[in-house]
From TrEMBL:
Family: Belongs to the protein kinase superfamily. Ser/Thr protein kinase family.
Major site of localization recorded for this protein: membrane
GO cellular component: plasma membrane
Enzyme superclass (EC): transferase
Region (Disordered) location: 12-63, 375-460
GO biological process, one term: innate immune response
Chain ranges of the Protein kinase domain: 91-368
Name assigned to this protein: non-specific serine/threonine protein kinase
Annotated residues for binding of ATP: K120
Pfam families: Pkinase
One GO MF term: ATP binding
């Protein structure tokens, strides 16, 4: 017997269907308990609470997992271990991409299609067991979005558990933020905001579009993979949970995730909500802004925990530049830094209720990501810091400049320091969220009107 003893024969049947087996009466004996999934172009997850319970269930006989399989079909391709061994050249060191708590990842080439893929071989003694493997296969088979990694297939031969993903050529966000070799260029401000906005959109899809909502539970920089053009995609869904449905405010579960990224209320009580993911997003956004790790034991005492170090600095506007990554060398818009810090500060609030919804975060970050900072105008002085509408110099957009002392200032949030230092912090946080949302919506409306004006002018 292999190390995957908890993965019983019925679970094996789900991942390795055999049409010759004559047990259809047994497979459907619980079908009357299932509600048919609501058709949706964004998700085929069954919306009922009972379906959520079925995915969360860990009954020893595996019946409920098989019921879920009856309701949704796994669309991922099934590979044999021999095929994946051939694709990765027998998992040779030259194919090795990286290693995490769940296993090693290799670059591979599928012989049948010629497609380049990433193959994750689960560590038999690692953190991800058969339950997490099954959850990841189900989740990524059902959820599809430009900011989620695409699952191509899986292998469940014997005691081998492997997942096959689309290959992300630029690696993980962590690779571009921390411990950079001397010859590697750090990410510029524009790219950091683009990555943050894209990752937030992936979370927004899970929280607001999937039915029932999905709580990612493991949002961290190493789980954000980068495609060409630094397009971010969330990966590793083994810890994902279906969120609360009906009148429930949270789901209770054992505490899992990565130290430094877990929301405090989840770490203390095991009560999980979508706001837990928002906290983790705030930590990653702080990593993007500061260049620091969430937890770094090599730093002096008091600076090892990123959130603990950053929070006091939010209270003094004069210290805001200390929060910017030194590798940026001052090449960032000062007002843009304030706005980014305002969003990060709201996301990492101690109280979950004080954090914004991810949809509001997306609105604010979309504004930041769609302004390209031009460091040629100088750094550290708002009167000289300039931002360009996306596309200037690249063949797209209107090509106009926005001075931060001009029209952009009218749509920006009020001074971040005032928001964070107010005596009535709860009220100010709510106002900050509302302003961030209005700020992004005003920007979208201006872009729409500008596009309409260009269209009318061209047809005059």
């Amino acid at each position: 017997m292999g190390c995957f003893s908890c993965f019983d024969s019925r679970e094996d049947e789900m991942l390795n269907p055999n049409p010759q087996q004559e047990n259809h009466h047994h497979e459907h004996e619980h079908d009357h308990d299932l509600k048919p999934p609501v058709p949706s172009r964004i998700s085929r997850l069954p919306p009922s609470a009972s379906a959520g319970d079925k995915l969360r269930s860990t009954t020893s006989n595996g019946e409920s997992k098989r019921e879920l399989a009856a309701a949704v079909q796994i669309a991922a391709q099934i590979f044999t271990f021999r095929e994946l061994a051939a694709a990765t050249k027998n998992f040779m060191p030259q194919s090795f991409l990286g290693e995490g708590g769940f296993g090693r990842v290799y670059k591979g080439l599928l012989e049948t299609t010629g497609q380049v893929v990433a193959v994750k071989q689960l560590d038999r003694d690692g953190l991800q067991g058969n339950r997490e493997f099954l959850v990841e296969v189900l989740m990524l088979s059902l959820l599809h979005h430009p900011n989620l990694v695409n699952l191509i297939g899986y292998c469940a031969d014997g005691d081998q558990r492997l997942l096959v993903y689309e290959f992300m050529p630029l690696g993980s966000l962590e690779d571009h933020l921390h411990d950079l070799p001397p010859d590697k260029e750090p990410l510029d401000w524009n790219t950091r905001m683009k990555i943050a906005a894209g990752a937030a959109k992936g979370l927004e899809y899970l929280h607001d579009k999937a039915n029932p909502p999905v709580i990612y539970r493991d949002f961290k920089s190493s789980n954000i993979l980068l495609d060409e053009g630094y397009h971010p995609k969330l990966s590793d869904f083994g810890l994902a949970k279906l969120g609360p449905v009906g009148d429930k405010s949270h789901v209770s579960t054992r505490v899992m995730g990565t130290y430094g990224y877990c929301a405090p209320e989840y770490a203390m009580t095991g009560q999980l909500t979508v706001k837990s993911d928002v906290y983790s997003f705030g930590v990653v956004f702080l990593e993007l802004i500061t260049g620091r790790k969430a937890i770094d034991s090599t730093r002096p005492h008091g600076e090892q925990n990123l959130v603990t170090w950053a929070r006091p600095l939010f209270n003094d506007r004069r210290k805001f530049p200390k929060l910017a990554d030194p590798q940026l060398q001052g090449r960032y818009p000062m007002r843009g830094l304030y706005q980014a810090l305002a969003v990060a500060s709201m996301c990492i609030q101690e109280q979950a209720a004080a954090r914004p919804l991810i949809g509001d975060v997306v609105t604010a970050l979309s504004f930041l990501a769609n302004q390209a900072y031009d460091h040629r105008g100088g750094a550290g002085d708002d009167k000289r810091n300039r931002v360009l509408k996306n596309g200037e110099g690249g063949g797209g957009g209107s090509g106009g400049r926005w001075d931060l002392e001009g029209s952009e200032k009218d749509d920006s949030p009020r001074e971040t320091a005032r928001m964070l230092n107010s005596n009535n912090r709860d009220l100010d946080r709510e106002r900050a969220v509302a302003e961030a949302k209005m700020w992004g919506e005003n920007w979208r409306e201006k872009r729409r009107q500008s596009a309409q004006g260009s269209f009318d002018g061209s047809n005059a």
